Fold this protein.
Amino acid sequence: MLKDIELDRLSISHGQVLWVIDGMNFVSWLTRPALDSVLKKFRLNKVPDFDRLGQAGRAGADFAYGFSEVMDCVVAMKLVSEGLAFRHVVGLMKFDPERLRQCYLRAYFEAESGTGVPLRVSSEDGRHLSISGLVLDFKAQISRSGALSTPGPILLDPWQALEHYTGNYVNFHPTGLVRLSQLATEAVRLAVVAPPVKRGRKS
């Protein structure tokens, strides 16, 4: 696990982000060119928002993806893999981006904070299950007309996530739950070893 200062220095290219997400294998039905196209479409919709970093990608310079920008791409694609429409994913990602970035950091460092300590669940027949890490919940609701509503992203500890996911719902089902600690850990692990990607046309 990287420390704070090391995480701040993380910087990879667009091509390397493709390599990371491809290696995480949760959108395996997408070819690399298709994944590239989807990520560029998200970027045009300011997911990630490079304007806030003063990056415009001009003069042939590639965009530099730090930890938060990598996680924006990972989370957005994970929501796509769960079947959410593109416009709904954009809406969730842009609702409160600052809070979302704080969620990324907390989820990555949860092992040291203790907030995501493993929850051991036992069944009456003697089976056991251990659940750990923090889960991102957008508490999203989509109306019959397709309108999206959300109070913004929050983090759930293992008990809260289990309780929320397995609850008894009527006319409502949880949407936008992401196992964030697991995704953040895997994304960083791959990002730090991502090989240089030879650039073709400007990203």
Summary: The beta strands are 119-122, 128-131, 135-137, 141-142, 148-149, 154-156, 177-178. Residues 4-191 form one domain. The mean pLDDT is 86.
